[in-house]
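INTERNAL AUDIT FORM
Audit reference: QA-55
Scope: verify that the stored structure record matches its stored sequence.
Auditor: D.O.
Record contents follow.
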Amino acid sequence: MSEVNVLIVEDEPMVAEDIAEALNNIDFKVSAVVYTEKAALEELQYNTPDIALLDINLKHGNEGIQIAEQINRLYQIPFVYLTAYSDKVTLQLAQHTEPAGYLVKPFTEKNLFATLQLALLNHGQRIKNNFSLPPLEKINDKLNARLSDREYDLLAKIFEGLTTKQMAAQLFIAVSTVKTHIRNIYLKLDVINRSAAIARIRELMNR
């Protein structure tokens, strides 16, 4: 539950499988693997992830870019483009959607993790520039079950885009302790993942 949920949109099954195998670990969890634009849009609507990996070129062209535009309009989560090659026009179109990163195929696990972590941090900075996490007391005034000081610390790290291991390292606590606090945060906010937690805080502050 504390992992970063990743949606993989990739029309090459072997590539998608390799990514999924690498990502199911302590920091990341694959929420779904889909191969078409339609399936991706359904996942975004009914099982919104924390971050998406989007192949730019699916079977019918630049569908990854169309998915990215929908993400920007409705979900405000970070996304990273996957590409084997792209012409100049396609790359310019992709840049206009403001992706959090690019991965050029073939890529290594090291590059995959580094790109995702940087994408989350960049997105966290973007959130910070547009929305400051309110003080703990202001949040607790809106909740039935109050967040503790430590839970608030972890909520701030979620907003920053840190992974579970990064949170543990920064706060000098065990990974298992981070997971317990994040589970408690989700329960108190009535959400199931990080993107929903961020959206929930924004919603509470707009009431």
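Auditor finding: record pair retrieved intact. The domain at 131-205 is CATH 1.10.10.10 (Arc Repressor Mutant, subunit A).
Action required: none
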